[in-house]
Amino acid sequence: MMLKGRVWKYGDNVDTDVIIPARYLNTSNPRELAAHVLEGLDPKFAEKVKKGDIIVAGENFGCGSSREHAPLAIKAAGVSCVIAKSFARIFYRNAINIGLPIIEAPDAVERIADGDVLEIELLSGIIRNVTQDEEYRFSAFPAFIQEIIESGGLVNYTRKRFRR
Amino acid sequence: MGLTMSEKILSEKASARVRAGEMIQARIDFLLMNDVTAPLGIKVFKELNHCIFDKERVAIVLDHFTPNKDIKSAEQCKYSREFAKRHGLPYFFEGGSVGVEHCLLPELGLVVPGDLVIGADSHTCTYGALGAFATGVGSTDAGVAMATGDVWLRVPDSILLEYKGSRNPWVMGKDLILHALGDLGASGALYKAIEFEGDAIHELSMSDRFTMSNMVIEAGAKAGLMPVDDVTLEYVKQRARRRYTSYEADSNAGYVLRRKYNAAEIEPLVAFPNLPSNVKKVSKAARMDIKLHQVFIGSCTNGRYEDLKIAAEILDGHEVADGLRLIVLPCSPQVYLKALKTGVLETILSAGSVIGPPSCGPCLGGHLGILAAGERALSTSNRNFVGRMGHPESKVYLANPAVAAASAVMGRIAHPEEVMRA
Questions:
Q1: How many CB pairs (< 8 A) connect A and B?
Q2: What is the pLDDT of residue B422?
Q3: What ipTM did this prediction achieve?
Q4: Cα separation, B160 vs B306, whole angstroms
Q5: pLDDT for A137-148, tens place per residue?
């Protein structure tokens, strides 16, 4: 699977309250959530982001609440992938479970600048920085998580389990 | 090398001897959802077209936006309520039976030592205070687990935090955990479990232990396990609705990090905006003359009876400062009733505060005390991220309930001794 898009770069500890403030959690409609995505950090983000764009961030992306509304809002806004130095663990689970590609690549994050255009080959673990003409590698997910991703998320994976 | 508490509990639930780093599918003992996370979880559950794994082991607690704050919230609650009714879920809580989930479930004996608990709420780690492995997950995880009765987990590495010595006056569990957060940082325990030990831990009430386990997530931790001792067993034996098991880490268990803290050197602390790990001493904060518009005492972190009681001791004979709103939400019906009977609520109300229903309320900027642009609040809750309690340009400071009560009287961040001396 190949992803391509413009980079929106942010810092460490991007928390779930800035990704989607709790006052919007009275709905779980992805489109309504997407209209407010990252509002607390970058109020114009929802207007600026284009389909395929990529969020790049520092340590502990998605820290805070367990709200699945956070990865849902990011996915529904058209973001194709989040690359971070590290992810908060519940956000990590949620992203895997709902099928939002996430990549832990600390070295790549150091090199990538806001506005760069990236091409990502998820399966072979390659990030190509078109703007800077560089290439970064990231390590594949553990086999078990790979299986969930290949099934298209936890729900499909569980359906397969029930059929076995 | 021996096993940590987490490795022992997860070995039992995976029916295999498992070590840190392994991916496992583990049986859960209890599952929790709330009004924000249940609707998504229920939708996922319905997609699977499967029965509930065990109705006695599922709780739905409508505590976040309740009493219903608007039409959308009311619809979300209705959706969860209809599901609970249709499936005859015995542990569905709303109205007069509801409390803040992480206060309510231990109080009712629904979660017990040795359990593997998952909850679609990040502060599910609170039950680690009972010697359970409890961790937050998302709605999809919860919806799937409601059908399968199990969850995928990576067995975490563990960090040992040892607290020695006796606490200073006005130092509570909140300060002990804020101290650790300041030391570890907001991602210092990412993907890891924290285990607590030391004589200062054994001295703590259950209330203080719940506060500490509650906030381990603010360092990124997956779980925060307390040792099971006489205090735990005394609390559990009068409540437990299921059999429970005490687990103890082996003396030669492998920890990736060990930290020793001297409780005698810890003072009451305040977490400054915008991270819980951004801590300073209250004595220092008090000299900075930080004027407050609101103080909130409540939440799954510090809304228990002991928290209200210490606040009442400080408020007794004093008045809330002019222009400041003190909002107090007892965390459960039992806590509310006890505080009513013992006069704690009368003292709090007489000081000029607002007493509201058990609800998460303003902690997550839901309702019952939202901040306007430029306002500053001190809260006994667990997070102070940008916009957490309202407008993105409002500020939140976190502290223990004694500091909160003293600050409400002084109208600025204050040390409890400033009021008790007066």
A1: 137
A2: 64
A3: 0.93
A4: 27
A5: 998 788 888 889
By CA distance, what is A18's nearest residue in B? B386
* Bridge pairing between strands B325-328 and B294-297: parallel
Contacts for B118 with CB less than 8 Å, ≥ 6 apart:
B28, B30, B31, B32, B124, B134, B135, B136, B137, B141, B142, B145, B151
Tokens of B83: 């599901």
Contact residues on chain B for A18, CB-CB shorter than 8 A: 385-387
A145 contacts on B by Cβ (under 8 Å): 23
Note whether B340 contacts A: Cβ–Cβ < 8 A: no
Residue carrying the six token digits 């990124």: B220
Domain annotation for chain B: domains and CATH numbers = 5-261 (3.30.499.10), 269-420 (3.30.499.10)
Distance from the Cα of B79 to chain A's closest Cα (Å) equals 12
Q: Is B118 near chain A, with CB under 8 Å?
A: no
pTM (2 d.p.): 0.97
**Chain B residue numbers touching A21 (CB-CB < 8 A):** 365, 387, 392
> pLDDT tens digit string along B5-49?
999 999 999 999 999 999 999 999 999 999 999 999 999 999 999
Residue B357 CB neighbours (<10 A): 17
- A64-82 pLDDT per residue, tens: 999 999 999 999 999 999 9
* Among the partner residues B36, B220, B275, nearest to A88 by beta-carbon distance: B220
B184 neighbourhood in chain A, CB within 8 Å: none
- Give me the residue from A15, A142, A154 closest to B140, CB to CB: A154
- Alpha carbon distance, N-terminus to C-terminus of chain B: 55
Q: What is the pLDDT of residues B211-270, one digit of tens each?
A: 999 999 999 999 999 999 999 999 999 999 999 999 999 999 999 999 999 999 999 999
